[in-house]
Design goal:
This protein has 253 residues and is α/β, with parallel strands linked by helices. The protein is built from 10 helices and 11 strands. 33% of the residues are buried.
């Protein structure tokens, strides 16, 4: 893994051809791509105050209205809009979704509105398997590529009393902006609540059909762990930036 300088920011169209633009509201994911060896320049199509909810509402038939929440739909919508805005540039967009999978049912985890909701989210995850889906859409100047990474994570059993104490201690500092209220990047949370060892499924498609990525042209399964691969690698995978996928998509020079 090579280290590149942190991403730059621009807020007007680039004039150079083949510049890789990463459409994002902040630098965190852009910097992560740079650290992985993918040089990007961060920009926005709208002001930084334009939220994900605003993105969804910007489309009359956007993800929430017609399809249910599918992260590849939103990432695709962003990518198409960015390609229209910056036709001479390569473009990357991304989106993530965290769900609980239990006995055939799937529950989407959103950002908690308050402490009570945070406790309910944590209890819903107690002893369960959660899946974080990361989607990356890339226009390489000729073709579209859609990468999807699903990372399975097991959460330890948590008592309601422990959840309440945890939320009281960390809600205002960490949890209010985290879907599911259990941030893996927060060391005390990671050590206490996450079981190490994660199954990963990766795929890459070259089109978008019926509001989903088309049939994958490439698929791979893997296994990663905090103890063997480190936190930065795990964070990359759960955001959809798995190095084998980035290589397959042609994002490594």
């Amino acid at each position: 893994m090579t280290e590149n300088p942190s991403s730059k920011e621009i807020f007007e169209p680039l004039q150079e051809n083949n510049s890789i633009l990463f459409i994002a509201g902040n630098n965190q994911k852009a910097d992560l791509l740079c650290l992985l060896g993918v040089g990007v320049v961060r920009t926005t199509l709208f002001p930084d105050t334009f939220s994900e909810a605003d993105w969804q509402a910007a489309y009359e038939h956007g993800p929430f209205y017609e399809y249910g929440y599918i992260p590849e739909v939103l990432a695709w919508q962003k990518a198409v809009a960015a390609h229209h805005e910056f036709p001479d540039s390569h473009v990357i967009t991304s989106d993530t979704l965290k769900v609980i999978r239990n006995n055939g049912t799937v529950t989407v985890l959103e950002k908690p509105a308050n402490k009570e909701e945070a406790v309910k989210q944590i209890m819903a995850q107690s002893g369960k398997e959660i899946i974080q889906k990361g989607v990356l859409v890339y226009w390489d100047g000729v073709n579209w590529k859609i990468g999807i990474v699903e990372t399975k994570m097991n959460i330890a059993e948590i008592s309601e009393g422990r959840a309440q104490v945890y939320v009281e201690e960390y809600f205002d500092k960490k949890l209010h902006n985290i879907p599911g209220s259990l941030p893996i990047m927060h060391e005390p949370t990671r050590i206490e609540f996450y079981e190490d060892g994660f199954e990963v499924s990766m795929s890459c498609a070259t089109g978008f059909e019926q509001n989903r990525a088309s049939e994958p042209k490439w698929q791979r399964k893997s296994h990663i762990s905090l103890s063997e691969d480190g936190l930065n690698t795990v964070f990359a995978y759960i955001n959809g930036f798995a190095p084998p996928l980035l290589e397959e998509m042609g994002l490594f020079s």
